[in-house]
Design goal:
Number of helices: 10
Order of helices and strands: HEHEHHEHHHEEEHHH
Number of strands: 6
Structural class: alpha/beta
Distance between the termini: 48 Å
Helix content: 40-55%
Strand order of the largest sheet: 1-2-3-4-5-6
Strand content: 5-15%
Largest sheet: 6 strands, mixed
Shape: globular
Length: 214
């Protein structure tokens, strides 16, 4: 596959990447792709053109900063998972402005761009294109460690690939991700919690949810 000098996905790989993505049920874009200008362009083209549901995080969100028209033009559901810094970058504002009214910030972004959004943090806020907003009750400060957001992206992509409606997929993944984080914190403590601890707790999170449902 054509690469950039930084060994990230090159612009000449766009058609190959698009063909691979088209053959999948859902796509996750962002974690680990890098910030090369060509790579960001490939990411934006996927966001704007791919007719598959998509989870967007990390470098994928950075690629959209200053180019939100790509998001608004998307032909299928787009689910974004920014932390406050990434949201501020996309909105070209400061983190303080995002944190001042998290609920309204998410509502405005989701309705303006026709996207599903979760603003991560204490009481993660989930917004839908129709203006509905939900506040997630699970999760803890220990989950602020690097890599835990990538776990959420993977869970969200998996739910989308299973065919869940995008809003339901986002709510389910955020809730279960936070619950897995809470279970992991009980096992190892918030201070030492890392991404693999969250991954290891996912099976128990599903089990607890099934028990509560019964």
């Amino acid at each position: 596959m054509p690469e950039t000098a930084a060994r990230t996905i090159g612009l000449k790989a766009r058609e190959v990447v698009a063909e691979l993505a088209t053959s999948r049920d859902a796509v996750a874009v962002g974690p680990g792709i890098g910030l090369d200008a060509e790579t960001r362009q490939v990411a934006r083209s996927l966001v704007a053109e791919l007719r598959k549901p998509m989870a967007i995080d990390a470098d994928g969100l950075t690629a959209l900063a200053g180019h939100l028209k790509a998001l608004s033009a998307a032909p299928a559901a787009r689910c974004l998972t920014p932390h406050p810094g990434e949201m501020a970058r996309m909105l070209e504002t400061g983190v303080a402005d995002v944190e001042r009214d998290r609920i309204e910030c998410v509502r405005a972004f989701a309705t303006c761009h026709g996207a599903y959004v979760v603003l991560k943090g204490a009481g993660s806020v989930i917004g839908a294109p129709d203006g509905r907003v939900f506040v997630n009750p699970t999760g803890n400060p220990g989950m602020a460690s690097g890599g835990t957001g990538d776990v959420l992206t993977g869970m969200l992509g998996a739910f989308l690939a299973r065919g869940l409606e995008p809003g339901a997929a986002l709510q389910a993944s955020v809730f279960l991700h936070g619950l897995a984080g809470d279970i992991a914190a009980q096992r190892v403590g918030e201070e030492s919690l890392i991404a693999r601890d969250v991954i290891a707790a996912i099976p128990e999170a599903f089990t607890r949810l099934r028990v509560d449902a019964d």
